[in-house]
Amino acid sequence: MVRYAAVSELWILFHTFKCRKVRAIDELFKIYGPVVRISSNTVAFLDSDPEQRTTCLVYNALKLDKGPLYDAVHMNGHLHSVAIIEHHVHAKYRRIFSSHYSPGNISLLHPEVKASAQVFVRYLDYGALEAWSKDDIILKAIEDYGRLILLSGILPKWLMSIVSHFPNERWQVFCISGDTLFTIIGRMVHNMQTQKDAGTLDEREKPTLVQRFFAHNDSCALEDKLSFEDMASESMTHLLAGVDASAVVFSYILWQFANQPPEVQKRIQAELDTAMPDPMVVPDLKVLQDALFKEGMRLHGPIPTFLERRSPRGGPLDLLGFKVPPRTVIGTQSWSMHRNEAIFENPEVFDVFRWLDPNKPQDAMLQALNPYGLGTRICIGQHLSRAANKTTLAAVLRNFDIAPCEKTDSQSMEMMELFGMFPVGLSCHLNFNPRV
Question: Which positions are annotated as binding heme (predicted)?
Answer without folding.
Answer: 379
